């Protein structure tokens, strides 16, 4: 019996003073295969195509190696390149709109000068029909783009949620992981049902009603209806954003604390083991620190992916809004007020579409930022 005790003591001494210190030493953190980074990368590549070359695997490796991943100069350079590229592709449309507005003003002013108001009205309506066709085609192309980018957001989140939930389960606990998973499903349902199927069609209805009101000098009979739809859209988006962020904030204040209580019991139990308690506690803290690092890296990578998925569509919609606002300001001194108002309506409708897409992006971004920020405090 004494011999077995000596052998057991020697093995314990060898584990404590030779093997465990090697485990505690800082080593490069590898991304486990269970995180399905290849599936996330394939989904991202299928959504953005050749617009952005971003590798999640390389990004994770650079962060874990301590390299600089994002620089302000690189972000500003990429943003400037995107802006100039989109402006070059749409500046001809701006010139066309200004020309139509000036022609409408020439018809109205010229007919008033000659005293032939009927001829001027006929010429005005011809120009207005051309402008109406141009506005409608451009606006519904923006609507299609918005519907596509919202669909892409949902597809990307379906690929990101399992990976991020797994990192939360290993770094914080199952309660936080399940809470984030449930909140993400709620967000996806809200974006698909409320924003994609209700608010975007409501903007289309507002656009058509507001344009139809410009066919007569008294601005039509549906002005109050258009104002009601506009007010509904603005307040609905603000209320939705505030409610979702508040709900998720309350959830993330409670769930990580529950997981922290469970983890503290385990760490105290490990620390109370005679002889190797302190070493076991150090090993446990090192492992938890590595999992929290992985969670933050995956979360920030997801944020970058979401922004890249929405970057070009948001820029196109923004330039659409700015282009029509500039054209309305340029033609206002010369053209008919109905032409100016039509251009302003197109710009305002583009702004509503931009807000819907931007709020959809913010909902997912805040969901990731909140869960990362709250769980980083629980180590």
Topology of this protein?
Layout: H1 2-24, H2 37-48, H3 56-64, H4 72-114, H5 117-171, H6 174-212, H7 223-271, H8 277-331, H9 337-375
Helix pairs in contact: 1-8, 2-5, 3-8, 4-5, 4-8, 5-6, 5-8, 5-9, 6-7, 6-9, 7-8, 7-9, 8-9
What attributes characterize this protein structure?
mainly alpha; 9 helices; elongated; 379 residues; 85% helix
Describe the structure.
The structure is a single chain. With 379 residues, the protein is an all-alpha fold. It has a domain at 143-319 and 344-378. The protein has helices at residues 2-24, 37-48, 56-64, 72-114, 117-171, 174-212, 223-271, 277-331, 337-375. The longest helix has 55 residues, at 117-171. The two termini are 43 Å apart.
Q: Note the gap between the termini.
A: 43 Å
Counted beta strands:
0
- Number of separate helices: 9
On the 0-100 scale, what is the average pLDDT? Answer: 75
User: What is the molecular shape?
Assistant: elongated
- How big is the Rg? 29 Å
**SSE string, helix = H, strand = E?**
HHHHHHHHH
Low-confidence stretches: 7-29
**Secondary structure: helix percent:** over 70%
Strand content: under 5%
Structural class assignment: mainly alpha
Reported for the largest beta sheet, the result is:
none
Quick recap of the structure?
With 379 residues, the chain is mainly alpha-helical.
């Amino acid at each position: 019996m004494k011999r077995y005790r000596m052998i057991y003591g020697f093995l314990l001494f060898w584990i404590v003073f030779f093997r465990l210190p090697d485990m505690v030493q800082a080593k490069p953190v590898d991304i486990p295969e269970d995180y399905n980074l290849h599936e996330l990368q394939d989904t991202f590549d299928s959504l953005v195509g050749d617009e952005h070359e971003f590798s999640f695997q390389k990004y994770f490796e650079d962060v874990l190696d301590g390299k600089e991943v994002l620089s302000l100069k690189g972000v500003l350079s990429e943003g400037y390149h995107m802006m100039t590229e989109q402006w070059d592709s749409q500046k001809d449309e701006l010139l066309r709109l200004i020309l139509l507005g000036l022609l409408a003003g020439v018809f109205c002013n010229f007919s008033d000068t000659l005293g032939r108001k009927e001829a001027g009205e006929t010429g005005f309506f011809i120009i207005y029909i051309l402008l109406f066709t141009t506005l409608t085609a451009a606006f519904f192309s923006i609507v299609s783009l918005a519907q596509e980018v919202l669909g892409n957001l949902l597809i990307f989140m379906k690929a990101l949620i399992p990976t991020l939930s797994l990192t939360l389960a290993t770094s914080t606990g199952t309660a936080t992981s399940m809470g984030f998973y449930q909140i993400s499903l709620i967000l996806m349902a809200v974006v698909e049902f409320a924003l994609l199927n209700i608010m975007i069609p409501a903007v289309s209805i507002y656009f058509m009603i507001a344009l139809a009101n410009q066919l007569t000098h008294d601005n039509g009979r549906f002005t109050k209806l258009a104002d009601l739809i506009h007010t509904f859209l603005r307040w609905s988006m603000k209320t939705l954003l505030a409610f979702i962020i508040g709900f998720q904030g309350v959830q993330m204040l409670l769930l990580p604390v529950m997981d922290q209580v469970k983890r503290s019991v385990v760490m105290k139990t490990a620390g109370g083991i005679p002889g190797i308690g302190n070493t076991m506690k150090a090993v446990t803290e090192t492992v938890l620190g590595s999992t929290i690092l992985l969670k933050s890296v995956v979360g920030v990578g997801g944020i970058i992916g979401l922004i890249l998925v929405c970057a070009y569509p948001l820029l196109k919609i923004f330039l659409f809004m700015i282009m029509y606002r500039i054209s309305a300001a340029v033609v206002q001194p010369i053209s008919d007020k109905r032409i100016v108002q039509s251009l302003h309506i197109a710009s305002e409708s583009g702004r509503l579409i931009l807000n819907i897409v931007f709020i959809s992006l913010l909902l997912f971004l805040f969901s990731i930022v909140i869960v990362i920020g709250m769980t980083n405090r629980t180590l």
